[in-house]
Structures are given as C-alpha cells and as structure tokens.
Specification:
single chain, about 290 residues, two-stranded antiparallel ribbon, 10-stranded mixed sheet, rod-shaped, alpha+beta
C-alpha cells in the first residue's frame, strides 16, 4: 500500500452506528456533522442555563422567605424574653409582697398575748403593741369573761364624747395581780398588770398549754409562767391565761388598790381531774408555744 493510501485511511476514519435496523456511517472529518453536534451542545447548554436560572430564582425566593421567617422568629423571641423579664419582675414583687404580708399581724404568723410583760420574747417574735391588761369588774354578773390587752396609744372614734345618761353599757377596767402575790413575785395585791401582743412571724399557730412548763416536741416555746384566772367565788366570769414567769408591773400601780379585772393563781382540784398525774391543791404552771 502506498503512503497516500495510508494518509487517506488516517484522516478518513469511519464510525458506524446502528439505529434500529439502519446502519449509518459517519466521517469525523465531516463539517456538517460537527456543525450539527455543536448546535446540539449549544442547545443543551442553553436548556441547562435556563434550568439553572430557574433553580437559582427558586433558591433566592426560598432564601428570602427563610430570612423573613428568621426575622419573625427573632422578633417573637425578643417578645418572649420581654414577657419573661416582666414575669420575673412580677414574681419578684410577689415574693416581696408575700414576705411583707408574712411579717404582718394579718398575714402568716402566730399571734399571742404575753401577760405580765411589756415586751416580747427576743429572737423568736416581734412586738405588735404593748399595753395594759384589763377586762370587766370582778363583781359584775354580766361581765365579759376574757382578759384584754389595752394599747397605750388609743385612737378614739366618733362617739367618744356622746352623752348617754343611763348605765345600760359595758365597762372595761384595768387589771391587778391578786393572790397569792408570791407566785406573781409581787410585794402586794395592788400592782397593775402590763401586757404585750407578740407575733412569731416564722410560725403560723400559737397555743397556751396549762399544767406544763415545756412545749411538746415540734413546738417552739414563746414563754412560760404561772396559770391565772379570776377568783372562783366572784360573780364575774373569767378565763385561764398564762402570766410570764418574770412578771413586770405598771408604774405607781402598787399604791392604789382599785381592783377591776383580777389575776389569781390557779390550783388543781382532784375529782374529775385525775390525780395522779395531777395533785390536789397544787398551783399550776403554763407555757405558750408556737408552731
């Protein structure tokens, strides 16, 4: 074979391909074929660009929507943090108010009267007010039974000076230590009785227990002392109260024996009251407890 024939064979490479039952032979050096392929490639590239631009537009739209949602979320989160801050502030105010109410007589706290003293037990209580023990006169058959603690700073109402000519009223008197003066540590039976109203702010209940000088387990002692009441033969009713073990007096009270509401020592009387554990004719003590 001559050189010319080899050259022709080199440049005139023939590709055969089958399409169904037809077989075509294409020459790679055919300009028409190359032009057709270039046109096809350009068309496919253009379609790909269109699809890419479409996807890019969708991506941009979704990204814009995502940024909008993120902005809404951030705004809502800011609102939530603001609400949480307000809630925390209100909760702090509520706790502060609760603490304040707890320390008030009308709030949570054990309120009791300390008879025979013008102060309150230290460390466990605070004073509401101090004053003068009082009540009804010991011979009045219609007397009120209870002892009361009259404050030292009364505030009069609108009928203070109302003129009323008859005796259809009640009366309240001061109180004195009576007999036996020794159990109240008094020199005589004419001393006037002080009192104080106390608040145990860390407790919610108070209880006077007669016949004991110690509280039961789980209770905290406010004070202890001697059990007192009115005299059993007087016309006026009375009640049992606990006079502090270290009682005080009101100034100048020992120079005027004016009676009024009276404090007497209380003895146990056997019978319906079991003896033992009690003993007949023995003076009873008492304790005021908080919980």
């Amino acid at each position: 074979m001559s050189f010319s024939c080899l050259k022709i064979a080199f440049f005139l490479t023939v590709i055969s391909y089958s399409n169904g039952s037809d077989e075509k032979r294409i020459l790679l050096s055919d300009p028409q074929y190359i032009q057709q392929e270039m046109t096809r490639f350009q068309s496919e590239l253009q379609e790909m660009r269109v699809k890419y631009n479409d996807l890019q537009a969708k991506y941009d739209a979704q990204n814009t929507e995502l940024l909008s949602l993120q902005a809404k979320y951030d705004a809502q989160n800011t609102d939530l943090l603001s609400i949480q801050a307000k809630n925390d502030a209100q909760n702090t105010d509520l706790l502060s108010l609760q603490t304040t109410v707890t320390g008030l007589p009308g709030g949570r706290g054990a309120v009791f009267t300390r008879w025979g003293r013008n102060d309150c037990p230290a460390n466990t209580t605070t004073m509401v007010y101090s004053g003068y023990a009082g009540g009804s006169y010991f011979t009045h058959p219609g007397a009120a039974a209870e002892y009361v603690c009259m404050p030292t700073d009364p505030i009069w109402g609108p009928y203070k000076d109302y003129v009323y000519g008859n005796e259809n009223v009640g009366y309240i008197y001061g109180a004195e230590y009576e007999e036996p003066a020794h159990i109240f540590s008094m020199p005589n039976s004419a001393e006037d009785v002080p009192c104080s109203v106390c608040l145990g702010s860390s407790h919610s209940a108070s209880l006077m227990i007669p016949g004991r000088t110690q509280c039961y387990p789980g209770w905290t002692e406010a004070y202890h002392g001697e059990l007192a009441s009115g005299y059993h033969g007087h016309a006026a009713a009375s009640q049992y109260v606990c006079v502090d073990q270290d009682p005080q007096t009101l100034p100048a009270g020992g120079t005027h024996d004016e009676n009024g509401k009276l404090f007497y020592g209380v003895k146990a009387k056997c019978g319906s009251l079991p003896c033992p554990p009690y003993e007949d004719g023995k003076f009873l003590s008492c304790v005021v407890c908080m919980k």
